[in-house]
Amino acid sequence: MQHKTDLRVIKTKANIKKVFIELLHQKEFDKITVQDILSRALINRSTFYKYYADKYDLAEQLVDEVINDTSIFINERFIATEGEAFISTIKRIYEHFYERRDVILALLKIKTDKINLSGTFQALLKEKYISHIKTNSSHEAASLIDYHATVYASFVFTTLSWLLFSGNQSDIDKITRDFNSMFFNKIFFTNFKTSYIAKN
Length: 200
Prior knowledge:
Blueprint: H1 2-24, H2 34-41, H3 45-51, H4 55-79, H5 83-99, H6 101-107, H7 117-135, H8 145-166, H9 171-178, H10 183-197
Helix pairs in contact: 1-2, 1-6, 4-5, 4-7, 5-9, 7-8
């Protein structure tokens, strides 16, 4: 009985999220009402408020899901820093986010004081980058580490955004293969190791 109840909850929340994403692709966030969601999801108001305080809470929970995914994948990405392992990991990460393309593109449209997927995503990338460098080098943070982290976060997010907006999944393989010859790889894998680790 408990399993059936849990499954019903999962399906109901999935339906609400699906409808909300559809609405975001059709109108601006500030124009969407809870009633819009109720009408399209074919649920009553009490059902919606059982899981979400309002549309902002719903949006925040969806953003949190994307950010939690991002955190897990970033950790994997820093384990593989070069060669085929790096290419394979990066490709898998971009493919995963491409599968959630509709959700991410919809959430990127929301910009409020508390909801900003672009800013939150890049802040997490920057934080993980700095943490990785400090953990893997005994040298104290150099004066440009914040700059490097900012450039890294911007590069990664810009690449992901471009892939999602382009709508061409085959570009994922081309871009990940191209990383090895791009300036990004030389700056953040070769020169970076030399400048930070050689000082120890």
